[in-house]
Amino acid sequence: MLLMMVFGSVHAFSVFLIPMETHYQASRSSVSLIYSLALVSLTLAVFLGHRFYGLVRPNIFVLVYCSLAVLGLLIAALSKYLIVTYLGFGVIFGFANGLAYGFSLHICAQTNPNNKGLVIGLITASYALGPILAPWPLSKLIESFGVSGGLVGFALAVLVIMPMTAFAYQISGAQIILVNDDVDNIDRIHSDIAIEKKPKSKQLILLLWISYGLAVTAGLMSIGHATGIAEQGGVMTNLIIIAPIVIAVFNMIGSFLGGWMIDHFQPRTCLCILPIVSAMSLLALSFLLADQSILIGLAIVGFIYGAIIAAYPAVIAALFGKVDSIRIYGLIFTAWGVAGFLGPWLAGIFYDSHGHYSFALLIAAIAGIMSAITAYFALKEINL
To answer: For residue 6, which phi and psi values (nearest 5 degrees)?
Structure first.
């Protein structure tokens, strides 16, 4: 949880948005691409993670990906060119972030098999805590030392947390399981849908991939452009910095409750209702809300996003078991990467073209509605 808090600060990127435009003399869409690339790299790491998780002991693995994260942040901090920042922050730091996120989710779920939803909710909630705490110190560092100062401060936070988390893994004795055994079959709600046993599993995975990607589009778009959306909505200048914090706070609450909901309610109902509520909020953001009331809409979007990113891994773990779910979640998580790349980047393009976010928010609302429809049909056949 402590580790996730620091790495989750990547989603406070919107505090860098306007300063980086000035620093690099670049457009909003060009700067947004840094965040989008980080999300793509993060996704790639989650997708490929099962190939790396077992190479070394967990405490050593922490040191590896934390060191990689520090390297990426320092490359970006020392860069005078936007393309180098794409490499440092977008590619290297993003990949390290994905290794940290995926590994933390799976090792905690495996070591708490009777409370998967709860522990996944705790992990995703801790990840959301980062962008609650990070915007103020990062903005102060940027104000005092420029963009480079903010990135160096981020790197120092990773350096501080690195030995602490490595020690925690060492004394816990936790290990990640990457090989199937007979016990794993007991962990399935519907063992007959295991990908190796039924061709229909491929259809199920595809539908979950589509519904997940559509569901997270709104949240990722809002997180990446929180300060910009607040500025467009007429939020007072001294309150604009609150926008990413509001999203992050409700993201954290939603993350905790999302995992809990899957443990206590029908998953199909949860995966259908959540994106519809998000869509309604996005429509309000696009057409109705203004001034400080726009923060309410961002809060709802943040809450739903948090619930969704906790609900899906819990559902996947229940469907496919503790070992197969590692690989299958990595595959489905690529939808998050596609949404993470397209959502913030396209929002930046729409802003550059029209001077506002209304059209981008409308597209995200439609995506939420389509997610609910897809999730309904994905889980209807297995009555989950």
So the answer is: -75, -50
State pLDDT tens for residues 254-285: 888 887 787 778 888 888 999 999 889 888 87
Question: Residues of the chain with pLDDT > 70: what percent?
Answer: 90
Q: How far is the C-alpha of 123 from the C-alpha of 313, rounded, in Å?
A: 11
Contact indicator for 46, 168 with CB cutoff of 8 Å: no
For the chain, the residue count is 384
pLDDT digits (tens, 9 = 90+) for 155-188: 999 999 999 999 988 888 877 776 655 444 434 4
Instruction: Specify the amino acid at residue 213.
Output: G
What are the E-state strand segments in 124-272? none
Rounded to the nearest integer, the mean pLDDT of the chain is: 83
Cβ-in-10-Å burial (0-12, 13-18, 19+) of 18 comes to: middle
CB-CB contact of 302 with 18 (8 Å): no
The structure's pTM equals 0.72
Give the pair of three-digit tokens for residue 238.
């001294």
Give Cα separations from 224 to 181, 200, 251, 288, 338 (angstroms): 41, 36, 14, 21, 14
Retrieve residue 356's tokens. 């506002």
Residue type, 110: Q
Those residues with Cβ within 8 angstroms of residue 203's Cβ, 6 or more apart along the chain or in another chain: none
End-to-end CA distance of the chain: 29
Residue 241 to residue 231: CA distance in whole angstroms:
10
Taking Cα atoms as reference points, which of 69, 86, 76 lies closest to residue 4? 69
Question: What are residue 269's phi and psi, to 5 degrees?
Answer: -60, -45
What distance in Å separates the CA atoms of residue 344 and residue 34, rounded to the nearest whole number?
Answer: 10
User: What digits encode the pLDDT tens for the residues 46-85?
Assistant: 888 878 887 888 889 999 999 999 999 999 999 888 999 9
